């Protein structure tokens, strides 16, 4: 798969075994049987580590890990400078969904992202990263501001979903997400999206429409939580693990479906083991992609973005690709 | 997805073939013929029965003008979920539909329009690849020919049996709505009972004019989900059309008897130049 899957611990342990055997030979001690028992004991441990996270459910757990780095952590690690901007200019400021302007190698970028918080106190203050309508409206304000000043947008997705509560409904969470989907799809600046943890349903998609979509190796992206899927379709909410394994929600699944562009490797044990390394991977992709996308004319950018979204779906029946393409090309002209 | 046995939400029983129909809201018995004459609105309590696309077309479109397109699209099983194909075929047999939406062109008082009608009978009106594609085609056809689009929504949300593909239909339909807007072609939405989840959070909330049928349930997360996970007490009119209008998300609540006239007015008003 990639370099991250080579196991440094295994190499180290193998080396230690070699040294031990050498030492035993030099001292003329018979450690053969003891060493082989030891090796046998190490097998399951090593095997577990070789495949960083085996099942989709393991990935769900890793994606939800309390120590997993969030949007602000990555932004601060990558940016030379970052200034957070608050509020939707209408109702309030949602701490579950952050945004601001940062610079990477001198390039100004508008960042938006879900923010869960890194300890219980922060989790509560940030509503576990579950955004209210004002959060999605803040994100829209910031990306339209980015469009106005011709700044590219980077979005970090990490939420179990938009907040399902009374206040959320009263202020129109459905409308807020719907508007974002519509406006993001025709935004005239490049938008890069990274699913860094949980990509939960409409709450994730609400800041997840862009030119490129990447997923961290242990991130997940789904239409409903495994718990929700289990309680509705399997009629037993305790079957979340079984649900996760059937829902096709891992980065590999989504790459196979053509929904995401690429998978960003994580260190053994998950992103929280070496956040700096993951940040450097993400930063490299941002620089690489923006170098290309920022040089494209806005109308072509939007055209390709819409064309890609337009093509998603699995069904039987007549569908002429060429007509569709012509159709989109003509219609995007109206976008000026 | 939701169930709602509560009093102030209308129940989901559809009009069946019996001669005498019981109103799910006020339990009064109505003769089927009478109900038909009343456009499937309970004469006692005003409850709006759920309609099939055919019934809706008969009430709204000029006679024999509706021409369906994309009629042959049927769903596949993109995440290879056990039992999904069987469930779809079962729903196709029960509802006499291919999937949860019918799209086509027609005229209303002689005015051209593209019309899409969702059906809650078909897997709870859930939006999978077929629904997303047909809605998208309707919106793009409107944009292409500069014809106003009218969409009647009725949905429990995304069709989770299609996994991530169902979520992506939200982005797909919303981006088609953006193109419709770019061509300055009007989109009229009629929210019918119930409209929730991924449909509410995409094209249903993107109309230039959003109409709702009286007492229709409209929301994002269902009341059961909110009550269950958050433990909040909900107001009595929560997520009704009236609740949504009070909070600024619905332009008008229109009784079914006035709906055709209202849509006809909107079409003619948008065909006129203001100056």
Main sheet properties of chain A: 8 strands, mixed
Order of helices and strands of chain B: EEHHEEHEEHEHEHEHHEH
Tell me the β content of chain B. Answer: 15-25%
Look at the structure and name the CATH superfamily of chain B: 2-enoyl-CoA Hydratase, Chain A, domain 1
What integer value in Å does the Rg of chain A equal? 23 Å
Helix fraction of chain A, binned, reads: 40-55%
Please write the string of helix (H) and strand (E) elements of chain A. HHHHEEEHHEHHEHEEHHHEHHEH
Helical amount among residues of chain B, as a percent range? 25-40%
Overall shape of chain B: globular
Q: Could you say how many structural domains of chain B there are in total? A: 1
Number of DSSP-assigned strands of chain A:
9
Q: Total number of helical segments of chain A?
A: 15
Q: How many strands of chain B?
A: 10
Main beta-sheet annotation of chain B:
7 strands, mixed
- Uncertain regions of chain A: pLDDT < 50 for 5+ in a row? 1-6, 47-52
Ranges of chain B where pLDDT stays below 50 over 5 or more residues in a row are 1-13
How far apart the termini of chain B lie comes to: 46 Å
Question: Residue-averaged pLDDT of chain A, rounded?
Answer: 88
Which class do the helix and strand fractions of chain A yield? alpha/beta
Short description:
Helix content of chain A is 49%, strand content 15%. Chain A contains 15 helices and 9 strands. With 275 residues, chain B is an alpha/beta fold.
SSE topology sketch:
The complex is a heterodimer of chains A (336) and B (275).
Chain A: H1 8-26, H2 32-50, H3 56-63, H4 71-78, E1 81-84, E2 97-104, E3 107-114, H5 120-125, H6 133-148, E4 153-159, H7 166-170, H8 173-185, E5 191-200, H9 201-205, E6 212-216, E7 220-222, H10 226-233, H11 240-246, H12 251-257, E8 262-264, H13 275-293, H14 298-310, E9 315-316, H15 321-333
Parallel strand pairs in A: 3-4, 4-5, 5-6, 5-7, 6-8
Antiparallel strand pairs in A: 1-2, 2-3
Chain B: E1 20-22, E2 29-31, H1 32-37, H2 53-60, E3 67-69, E4 74-75, H3 84-95, E5 101-108, E6 111-118, H4 129-145, E7 149-155, H5 164-182, E8 187-195, H6 197-200, E9 209-212, H7 223-230, H8 241-246, E10 252-253, H9 256-271
Helix pairs in contact in B: 4-5
């Amino acid at each position: 798969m990639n370099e991250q899957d080579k196991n440094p611990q295994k190499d180290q342990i193998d080396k230690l075994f070699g040294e031990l055997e050498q030492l035993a030979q030099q001292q003329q001690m018979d450690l053969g049987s003891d060493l082989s028992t030891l090796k046998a004991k190490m097998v399951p441990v090593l095997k577990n580590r070789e495949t960083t996270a085996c099942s989709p459910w393991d990935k769900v757990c890793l994606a939800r890990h309390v120590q997993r780095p969030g949007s602000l952590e990555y932004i601060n690690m990558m940016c030379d400078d970052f200034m957070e901007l608050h509020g939707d200019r209408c109702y309030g400021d949602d701490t579950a969904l952050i945004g601001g302007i940062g610079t990477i190698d001198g390039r100004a970028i508008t960042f938006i992202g879900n923010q869960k918080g890194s300890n219980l106190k922060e989790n509560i203050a940030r509503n576990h990263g579950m955004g209210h309508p004002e959060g999605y409206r803040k994100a829209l304000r910031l990306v339209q501001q980015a469009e106005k000043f011709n700044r590219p947008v980077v979005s970090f997705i990490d939420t179990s979903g938009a907040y399902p509560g009374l206040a959320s409904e009263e202020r129109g969470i459905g409308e807020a997400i719907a508007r974002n989907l519509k406006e993001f799809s025709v935004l005239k600046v490049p938008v890069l999206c990274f699913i860094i943890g949980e990509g939960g349903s409409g709450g994730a998609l609400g800041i997840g429409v862009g030119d490129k979509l990447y997923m961290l190796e242990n991130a997940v992206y789904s239409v409903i939580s495994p718990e929700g899927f289990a309680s509705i379709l399997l009629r037993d909410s305790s079957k979340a693990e079984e649900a996760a394994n059937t829902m096709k929600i891992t980065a590999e699944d989504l790459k196979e479906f053509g929904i995401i562009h690429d998978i960003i490797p994580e260190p053994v044990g998950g992103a929280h083991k070496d956040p700096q390394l993951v940040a450097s991977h993400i930063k490299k992709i941002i620089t690489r992609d923006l170098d290309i996308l920022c040089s494209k004319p806005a109308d072509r950018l939007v055209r390709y973005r819409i064309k890609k979204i337009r093509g998603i779906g699995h069904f039987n029946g007549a569908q002429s690709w060429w007509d569709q393409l012509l159709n989109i090309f003509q219609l995007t002209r109206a976008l000026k | 997805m939701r169930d709602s046995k509560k009093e102030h939400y209308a129940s989901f029983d559809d009009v069946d073939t019996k001669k005498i129909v019981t109103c799910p809201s006020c339990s009064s018995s109505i003769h089927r013929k009478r109900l038909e004459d009343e456009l499937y609105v309970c004469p006692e309590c005003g409850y709006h029965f759920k309609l099939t696309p055919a019934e809706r077309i008969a009430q709204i479109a000029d006679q024999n003008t509706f021409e369906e397109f994309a009629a042959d699209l049927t769903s596949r099983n993109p995440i290879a979920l056990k039992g999904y194909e069987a469930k779809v075929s079962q729903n196709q047999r029960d509802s006499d539909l291919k999937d949860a939406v019918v799209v086509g062109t027609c005229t209303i008082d002689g005015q051209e329009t593209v019309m899409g009608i969702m059906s809650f009978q078909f897997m709870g009106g859930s939006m999978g690849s077929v629904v997303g594609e047909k809605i998208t085609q309707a919106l793009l056809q409107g944009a292409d020919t500069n014809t106003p689009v009218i969409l009647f929504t009725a949905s429990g949300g995304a069709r989770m049996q299609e996994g991530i593909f169902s979520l992506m239909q939200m982005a797909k339909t919303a981006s088609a709505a953006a193109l419709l807007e770019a061509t300055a072609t009007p989109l009229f939405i009629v929210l019918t009972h119930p409209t929730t989840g991924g449909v509410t959070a995409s094209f249903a909330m993107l109309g230039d004019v959003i109409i709702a049928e009286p007492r229709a349930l409209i929301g994002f997360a269902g009341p059961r989900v909110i009550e269950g996970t958050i433990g909040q007490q909900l107001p009595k009119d929560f997520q009704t059309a009236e609740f949504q209008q009070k909070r600024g998300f619905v332009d008008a609540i229109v009784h079914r008897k006035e709906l055709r006239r209202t849509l006809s007015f909107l079409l003619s008003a948008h065909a006129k130049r203001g100056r």
